[in-house]
Amino acid sequence: DTYVSLIKAIRTLAYPKHPSTIQSERSGYSIYIPNSIPAAVPIFIMRPLRGELEHATQNIVNRIRAAGDKYVYWLDTSGWLDPNSSSESETSTQDFYLDGNVKPPRWRLTERGNQRTAIFLHMHVCRYLARDGEKCPFLPSEVYEGKVFDPAERDFERYVDGEKERRLRELFWGEDPTKG
Phi and psi at residue 176, in whole multiples of 5°? Predict the structure, then answer.
């Protein structure tokens, strides 16, 4: 509940006005948007880089989205870094090191880990930070917002997949599953 409250507080305090309200005020018009509509400014909740609390962060995003805020996204960071770093190995080839200078000792990102995280994170946030989102070649908005479900499209995709399988079987094994 604390994390859910934090996200709601960020949404309320950081974005007190809906972005379309701000845009209309700049152009000299005023429109009314109820406060119950969340701002369309995305908030990304990342899976912890070493995987701790993965399910907790994912559940937080699910709860917030179920409550109506569709602009909160969970970034799956699994595979971005190698969490199996040991404090004894060479730091230039690992993503984490164990910082013994703090109590209790904590895992920290190495320079390599920071660079790799920045590269992967850039793919997700570039569209929202760049002045010209078209210059960001990564990840179209459907990755987060999803596509509208179309049953006819799903049926067509199933048909195409079935045809591919039928033709491959016929090509490689000389069998036609529709005749057998």
Answer: -115, 110
From first to last of its 180 residues, what are the pLDDT tens digits of the chain? Answer: 788 888 888 887 776 665 555 555 566 665 555 554 556 677 888 888 888 888 888 899 899 888 888 888 888 888 888 877 665 555 667 888 888 888 998 888 888 888 888 888 887 777 777 777 677 766 555 555 555 556 677 778 888 888 888 888 888 887 665 565
Residue identified by tokens 């969970």 is 74
CA dist 121 and 47 (Å) reads: 12
Cβ contact 95:116 at 8 Å: yes
DSSP string, 78-116: TTTS-S---TTS-GGG-SEEEETTSSS-EEEE-HHHHHH
Closest CA to 5 of 52, 60, 59: 60
* Whether this model's pTM surpasses 0.90: no
CA atoms of 65 and 46, how far apart (whole Å): 15
Element (H, E) at 171: helix 151-173
